[in-house]
Batch of 3 targets.
Target 1
Amino acid sequence: MNIFVEGIKEGVYLIWQMDPEIIQITLLSLQVSLTALVLSAVFGIPAGAALALKRIPGKRIYLNIIYTLMGLPPVLAGLLVYLLLTYRGPLGQFELLFTPSAMVFAQVLLAAPIVCGLTARAVMALPQDVYDTAATLGASRRQAAAAIMREARIGIVAALTTAFGRVIAEVGAVMLVGGNIRWSTRVLTMSIVLETRMGNFSTAIAIGLILLTLSFIINLLILKLEKRTLRYDNTIQIT
Amino acid sequence: MKMKNNRILLVLALLAAFLVTMVAGCAKEEPKAPEQGQQPPAKELKLATTTSTQDSGLLDVLLPEFEKDTNYKVKVIAVGTGQAIEMGAAGDVDVILVHSRAAEDKFVADGFGVDRRDVMYNDFLIIGPAEDPAGIKGSADTIEAFLTIASKQAAFVSRGDNSGTDKKEKGIWTKAEITPAGAWYIESGQGMGDTFRMADEKKAYTLIDRATYLAQKDKYKLEIIMEGDKSLLNPYGVIPVNPEKFPNVDYEGATKFAQWLTSEKGQKMIGEFGVEKYKQQLFVPDAK
């Protein structure tokens, strides 16, 4: 038990001291994972919506593939990106291996299917009424689609928080393509691995706590904003 | 309309959070600027090396001096020797610092590396529970000790990751003409620190380099059971990646790094590393 107490103490101390290395590592974690999340949202939300709303032959198969990719093993994603970016690989000339960009690349591969798949799910779960009502009120196709997305927003926010949780906590892919380079590509999860490897368990726990705190704050932000958008809606309640 | 605004707000807030981290990410580079003020910006050198040089803390001592002397910034990728050599063979790094003589010679013979230099050696230890369950203390040599462990089926944790340490261990088994297998032979598939931890949990024997052992021994209970045998020496070599094969590598920087490590200054620093803290030498410099 002692080790947990030590870990908590050390975590508070690390944050309190504003240890420059820990701050750099934390900011890099945020930067990489948020960039991956934004990119995944940009690709994933429209793709998911299209998959749900359009008539596409073989839609079930596409959905099945997306759902499978939601469980893509991080190390495999990392290996694929590694082989693409290695000097002799197809994208080797850009020299992206062992850079934060490579880490973003790998994380998008992990997060985009989650955003896409859960968005599709959220949109498909809506009743036909949503479209019919909008159409009756004279909405154009575009406006109707916007109304549908608005109705599905809780599901979409859930997709984003899930995707963020996956990438911020992931280590296999970023370790492989980032290389765990100090001051350059080391993120929080890699530090936890490194400290564990060196037997510094309390430091590892401390960094883990920082990561969880970070996740908590980001999710708090997302949920707070979601709540604001719900103010004029009636969410389901037991009365 | 109100709702739409709020949704836009959410997107904006996420973007803002993202931008803040971007800006913060850029800001972190500012402290480095003053150092670069009087001289041209440091060039980057990618070094693939073993976890032992990083986990022991040797690189933390050597690299800042090298960077000061040559105006290079070294990016360290610490993996097993096998993976480090693969990174060199793919042209993804400029120079490798590893310990597995046979694999190093093959790396050079295959044309991936040039001008290999001896840098230093440390030695391996056989560690295990203090009560020495297999009774290998006092064995004539390493091979006899390994034979005893196998015949008694005493728990033994192997790296099993094709690293330099792993290759060393496999070499000893080969010499003992034994193919280790069975419940007693545990392959961790992880780095030295993780393997040490696992051996400690399982009260098992393991082969470990002295540097990692000394750096971490206070955290675990295993003790040195055997040391000092000639076959337990562990030589490190530095090899720049062949620029004719990979025009992208910084051969000049790699050579500077190899020269610096084998220079009088580099060798002296290697020899002194850890003496103050552990009261013994961790690495013995042996550049020719």
Note: Chain A touches chain B at residues 20, 23-24, 27-28, 30-31, 34-35, 37-38, 41, 86-88, 95, 97-98, 146, 150, 153, 157, 179-182, 184, 196-199, 218, 221-222, 225-226, 228-229, 231-233 (CB under 8 Å).
Target 2
Amino acid sequence: MKGIVFTELIEMVEKDLGFEIADRMISNSNTPNAGAYTTVGTYDHRELIELVVSLSGESGIPVAELVRIFGKHLFQTFVRLYPGFFERVETALDFLPSIETYIHVEVRKLYPDAELPTFQSERTESGLTLTYQSKRPFADLAEGLILAAIDHFGDTLSLRRIDLDKQDGTAARFELIEKSQSALTEGIHA
Amino acid sequence: MHEIELLNRRLAREQAARKAAEALLESKSLELYSASQQLRCLAQQYQAIFETAAEGIICCDHCGVIVSANRSARHMFQSEALVGSKLDNLFEDASEYHLKIPSATLFPAEQRDEAEAALRPPQSIEIRCRRISGGEFPAEISASRLDVSATSNFTLVVRDLTRKQRLESRLRQSQKMESIGQLAAGIAHEINTPIQFIGDNLRFIQEAFRQIEKVMDEIDVTNMARSPIELANQFSSIKRQAMDADWEFYKTEFPDALEQSLHGIAHVSKIVRAMKEFSSPTSESLSQFDINAAIQNTLSVAANQCRSVGTIETRLDPELPQAMCLGAQMNQVLLNLLTNAIDAVCEVHAEQGGRIEISTSRNADDVVIRIYDNGIGIAPHIRERIFEPFFTTKPVGRGAGQGLAFVYDVVVEKHQGSIQVISPPTGGTEFVIHLPYITSKAARSDHANSAN
């Protein structure tokens, strides 16, 4: 996993919860490099899990919630660092399919060995279905990123997550539904 | 924890991260340098391959402007300044090939898709090229298209065919001379036989003339007898001389000897004319060709070999129109097929049981030539290979395996005709050749224009 994910996590914790919590998160997580991450490095994704579990212990916030929050933070970082990916896109429904077809293609040019998750998208009458699959259990992170994308574009979409396969966070289907359609659907079900 | 201590710990992490980043950066720099060196090395290798390739390689942009040309291309077109010039300057009548030669002027936008289809996979065409310094040369060109970063580039591989065509021409001529050489003994025999009986007849006429001369001397009017007795004696002497000369015999044999001699001279004349047709220089252009006459010529040239075949029957359509042909090459085709038929017949019919039938006919588009023999036939397992160059079933020294390969090349490749081979398991072979009246598209067009 690229180092930027680690440095951004530490930066977020330092900023939102303070240096002391960040320090304890690192100290208690027992990572090999004692928290000395660099954005250009590559690290084992299990170190991120250790850091988040450690942070959960310090903050009392559930791990899943922390990862979702971090996903939202990471999205803002991406917008800042890679504005080109967000140009000429006006809605999350247009942006999210481009993760697989454009962003990951560009990432692979720089990092041919990168083990990226897949986001299979399918437009539906009511919105979009995005199926996440990864070797790593970061469906929560994906959910945070998707929520941040909806906020970023100012869309009125509701998000429904359905865990797939082993339900261990390695596979999930995200259904993005236009709010008006969502209300209609709920009405019918009611 | 004290704030100073926290900051110190953070500083230590940042310093460690910086060192890790620097180490990583250095390692990546080395990787990059190494990759760059490899790329440079590869580029040099490709440049060397490009520059030293025996074929001319020309790269041009989507507008047909040449962006690079290798040494062979510069040598072929005799210019060191090809780069920057337009591709269509290099080809004679390039518009004829507008779908295949990539150039903006030759490659209008509406034809791009069609042109792309024509370029994938690369197809080669034969075209005449123009040297910058003047002059032309025949070449084979393969064009390919490469789309990079939304722009199209084109690569042309140019192969100079001058030497190949010259060698092909020499080969054709030597094959023709080889055939004539093989037939020479038979032709000598064919000419010798009539020459011999013409000589005998002339000697007979010469002897007869001497005898008649004696009679004529007796009836010389300037030495006529004056008295009746002398006249009776003289008449008696003339009668005796005439009887000695066997005048009645001469009266019967003279016309026959002359008639036979004239036939012999006509026969020799026919063979010489056929030989002349065969040995005329190879024509490189299509012209009106009388196939029936060519078959008769071929039979004359191979008359001696034909004697070993029991029956040779010809059924030639008297209304057969002339076809556009490379005449000398078509003569060679007919001779190759006839000698093959004779060889096939001789393998199974030692005496007079052999039979060869040659016929011509026509349909809407083609002249049809059939050459049948009741010879040994062609085994099924070699039927697919008989038109391959150097494939032969004849013993060493008797066949080079070029005869039917030549036939295929001339009929199919050069005249857009077809050859069908029928050889049942019971033996015998029939070659059926369909030859279009008008062979090439260009010739058809010329023909249409002249008809108009």
Note: The longest strand of chain A covers residues 171-178.
Target 3
Amino acid sequence: MGGGLREGIRVNWGSLENFLAMGGYAFYVWGSYLVTLGLVIAEIVLLALRKRSALARLRLHGAAAQENR
Amino acid sequence: MSINWFKYSSPQTFFPLAGKLALGFGVLALLACGVGLYLGFFVAPTDAQQGEAYRIIFIHVPAAWMSMFLYLVMAFWAGLGLAFNTRLSGMMASAIAPTGALFTFLALWTGSLWGKPTWGTWWVWDARLTSELILLFLYFGFMALQAAIDDPRRADKAGAVLALVGVVNIPIIYFSVKWWNTLHQGASVSLTKAPTMAATMLTGMAVMAFGFWFYSIAAALMRARCIMLERERASEWVADYARGSG
């Protein structure tokens, strides 16, 4: 996979520097892609945390209910 | 053979199904975005007018499509909940809203980063950009309204009314480039006209759109599962699930 990516960059862009430069539009192109990637990852992390805290609260609640029995 | 669709309309039976579907659509999203990015960066040619700046299109257009499509799906579920008073419908509407807001923000963000090098400005108050910004505020308004009401059933009803009224904004966004003189260009893809861009560009954009679509389904289902655990916390099946997953 990593090798294929390097090969793809070399064949289509000449070099990694050219690829990263995006024809002088690096800030705009990568600014779009990195923010998109960052926010998608943030959403997934927040969803995982939300589920974990919901389950933790449920378990706390369940334990308290059992003690009161 | 008959399928009982109502079987999955209760949170208890939908919860495990949603978990499996979220995983499946998550994998599909990863695959589609991988192929889409490959097409976008390694197969699609450099644009004759815009150089490499145009490559923002592979996330900008799919994000903008999703921002409108998710709003319609959210309003559909909200309306269904309002009409039939089903518990799951309101949960689905609430589960879609943050992902819809995310794609609306991304459409605006990537559009701004695209506008600067091509139009010479980050922002302009033209009809397309302004109506898309209103869409972002509609998502935020829906989420804030629901968060402000403690009783989930009442929160669902209030949110549903807001969501349904806001639907009027969707055709305004979509047709804004036709109805008004906008700096934003016309529709990139049309059913009636021959495509104006290279086939590989169009394919890359379409594959990315599928990737975003699958991702949205996965994210919304994951959030729906959280909402079920939170809202149905008093029920036996949720207690069982919490014990089993500990």
Note: The mean pLDDT of chain A is 89.
